[in-house]
């Protein structure tokens, strides 16, 4: 039986007088690896903020795990890795282990009081992203891609069922981007975590996601990524209203 993890109905949103989202309708089922793509300024981050309850809904509805957002309380089921994670302060005085433990305690320093089971969870989360060998390293000494894995481990440590990642590969070098997507696909297939990945890197995400959503103020495409890839650039640009950059791995 399919289970709706997220559903968005007739959602519209504007900042002051500027309309940003127009009549968004979408749903994500349990077990999907959904990719949300769209050009800069297309409203991706705004949509995520609304889903996470960080902006107030003006028009329309959002349900999480079948519950209307305004009544939803099971936030432990949702993990979020923000775009800002990789503009991280390199001088941050914490080890990889401590950074992941913060996902459990919310506070740095409290890791000292973790129970054995929690400590095991920290190592398990690190192992899920292939970073267990780095546990004692200072987070500031890692590469951008390695840091991003640690932030995913931090989101995983409380065992979320739904993980939302906002542009997680910005600042990650090209070789590591591919490894990074493989790791996400593994979390999806082997841990059963439903994923929503936001990106403007159209080329590389389409090869990994199970469902593709194209946003530019409204949802212009929702479906199989292969069907999308087989379209001509002209067909794709009709969705967007302007020509599209389909080059793989372009980073801002
Ligand atoms: N707090 C805000 N107040 C006013 N306008 C905003 C605010 N946040 C975003 N905007 C505007 O809303 C539009 C959509 O922004 P949003 O950040 O959601 O897009 P995005 O698709 O995530 O872009 P990017 O890929 O560049 O991160 C943009 O025109 C942006 O300037």
Automatic annotation (TrEMBL):
Nucleotide-binding is among the record's keywords: yes
Gene3D superfamilies recorded: P-loop containing nucleotide triphosphate hydrolases
Keywords linked to the UniProt accession: ATP-binding, Nucleotide-binding, Transport
Record-level Gene Ontology MF annotations: ATP binding; ATP hydrolysis activity
Residues covered by the ABC transporter domain: 6-241
Keyword Transport set for record: yes
A Pfam family annotated for this UniProt entry: ABC_tran
Protein family (similarity comment): Belongs to the ABC transporter superfamily.
Protein name: Zinc transport system ATP-binding protein
Organism: Melghiribacillus thermohalophilus
Lineage: Bacteria, Bacillati, Bacillota, Bacilli, Bacillales
């Amino acid at each position: 039986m399919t289970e709706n993890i997220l559903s968005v109905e007739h959602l519209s949103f504007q900042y002051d007088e500027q309309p940003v989202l127009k009549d968004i309708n979408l749903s994500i089922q349990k077990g999907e690896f959904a990719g949300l793509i769209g050009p800069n300024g297309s409203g991706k981050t705004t949509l995520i903020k609304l889903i996470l309850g960080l902006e107030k809904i003006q028009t329309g509805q959002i349900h999480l795990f079948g519950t209307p957002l305004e009544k939803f309380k099971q936030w432990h089921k949702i993990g979020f890795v923000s775009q800002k994670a990789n503009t991280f302060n390199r001088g941050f005085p914490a080890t990889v282990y401590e950074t992941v433990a913060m996902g459990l305690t919310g506070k740095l320093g409290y890791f000292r009081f973790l129970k054995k089971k929690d400590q095991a969870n920290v190592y398990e989360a690190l192992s899920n992203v292939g970073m267990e060998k780095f546990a004692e390293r200072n987070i500031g000494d890692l590469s951008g891609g390695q840091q991003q894995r640690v932030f995913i481990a931090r989101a995983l440590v409380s065992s979320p069922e739904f993980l939302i990642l906002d542009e997680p590969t910005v600042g990650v070098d090209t070789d590591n981007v591919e490894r990074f997507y493989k790791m996400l696909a593994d979390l999806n297939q082997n841990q059963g975590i439903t994923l929503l990945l936001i990106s403007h890197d159209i080329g590389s995400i389409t090869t990994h996601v199970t469902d593709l959503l194209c946003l530019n103020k409204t949802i212009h495409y929702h479906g199989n990524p292969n069907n999308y890839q087989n379209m001509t650039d002209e067909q794709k640009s009709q969705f967007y209203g302007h020509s599209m950059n389909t080059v793989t791995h372009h980073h801002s």
